[in-house]
């Protein structure tokens, strides 16, 4: 019951009024007594947090926590593509025109994900990675590779769950949820970093400045539950051998650039 309550506060529900109430509570001082129980319940490692646990004023403050410098070493190989988040590698595979994403029994179309046929075309015959973040995970997003921002856009209005049940039974959550897409140019090849918001609260906060991003730079953070999808243009990476349903951390290699 305790874990369900805490999860509701940071993943929210599919009802707007309930979501708003939980959002307001999690950002208020009233939720401060739950900070330590939340950390214990989800086994957060307070030794890696930038601030001591007692310094977090409410649950949301803890949820978007920063980590101490050096806590997430970034693989410095020139040709490595690293994980942008702490999370579960839910799925990855090759892309083709048509039905490409297979998530918990549902199929998702890349045109829906990126918003148009024009945006999707460069990624046909490429590769994708889907990373799911649970309440226990660090919720800041880092750049997976050196690159230059080609463009950045937002899609979606109403949001649906992006937890395991939401992915399976929701109304095409990855394509319809609010999302912020950052498209990078990497030596002439494209990488789309799709940050998918959760439930009814569209909260993806961008933190980067300028158009040049280096591997490991912080890009954004999720205020509430979240999923990240990486979409790679054909020829950007070699085939990845990372195992699905395994946990990855920011900075760990998930594929190699060609």
UniProtKB/TrEMBL annotation:
UniProtKB keywords: Cell membrane, Decarboxylase, Lipid biosynthesis, Lipid metabolism, Lyase, Membrane, Phospholipid biosynthesis, Phospholipid metabolism, Pyruvate, Zymogen
Swiss-Prot/TrEMBL site (Cleavage (non-hydrolytic)) positions: 225-226
Cofactor: how bound: Binds 1 pyruvoyl group covalently per subunit.
GO cellular component: plasma membrane
Recorded coiled-coil stretches: none
CC cofactor: pyruvate
Biological process terms in GO annotation: phosphatidylethanolamine biosynthetic process
Metabolic or biological pathway, per its Swiss-Prot or TrEMBL entry: Lipid metabolism; Phospholipid metabolism; phosphatidylethanolamine biosynthesis; phosphatidylethanolamine from CDP-diacylglycerol: step 2/2
GO molecular function: phosphatidylserine decarboxylase activity
Membrane topology per record: Peripheral membrane protein
Keyword Iron-sulfur: no
Catalytic activity field: a 1,2-diacyl-sn-glycero-3-phospho-L-serine + H(+) = a 1,2-diacyl-sn-glycero-3-phosphoethanolamine + CO2
Residues recorded with modification Pyruvic acid (Ser): 226
Matches recorded under HAMAP family: PS_decarb_PSD_B_type1
Family (UniProt): Belongs to the phosphatidylserine decarboxylase family. PSD-B subfamily. Prokaryotic type I sub-subfamily.
Subunit composition and interactions: Heterodimer of a large membrane-associated beta subunit and a small pyruvoyl-containing alpha subunit.
Protein name, entry field: Phosphatidylserine decarboxylase proenzyme
Organism: Halalkalibacter okhensis
Gene name tied to this protein: psd
């Amino acid at each position: 019951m305790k874990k369900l309550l805490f999860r509701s506060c940071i993943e929210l529900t599919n009802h707007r009024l309930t979501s708003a109430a939980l959002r307001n509570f999690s950002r208020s001082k009233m939720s401060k007594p739950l900070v330590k129980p939340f950390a214990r319940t989800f086994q957060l490692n307070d030794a890696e947090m930038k601030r001591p646990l007692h310094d977090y004023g409410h649950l949301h403050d803890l949820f978007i926590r920063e980590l101490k410098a050096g806590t997430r070493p970034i693989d410095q190989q020139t040709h490595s593509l690293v994980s942008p988040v702490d999370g579960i590698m839910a799925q990855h595979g090759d892309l083709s025109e048509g039905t490409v994403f297979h998530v918990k029994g549902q199929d998702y179309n890349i045109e829906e994900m990126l918003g148009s046929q024009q945006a999707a075309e460069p990624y046909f015959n490429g590769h994708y990675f889907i990373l799911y973040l649970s309440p226990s995970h660090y919720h800041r997003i880092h750049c997976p590779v050196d690159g230059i921002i080609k463009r950045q856009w937002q899609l979606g209005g109403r949001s649906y769950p992006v937890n395991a049940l939401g992915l399976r039974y929701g109304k095409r959550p990855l394509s319809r949820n609010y999302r912020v897409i950052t498209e990078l140019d990497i030596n002439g090849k494209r990488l789309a970093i799709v940050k998918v918001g959760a439930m009814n609260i569209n909260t993806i906060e961008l933190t980067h400045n300028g158009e040049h991003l280096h591997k490991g730079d912080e890009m954004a953070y999720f205020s509430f539950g979240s999923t990240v999808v990486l979409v790679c243009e054909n020829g950007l990476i070699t085939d990845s051998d990372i195992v699905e349903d395994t946990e990855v951390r920011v900075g760990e290699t998930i594929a190699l650039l060609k």
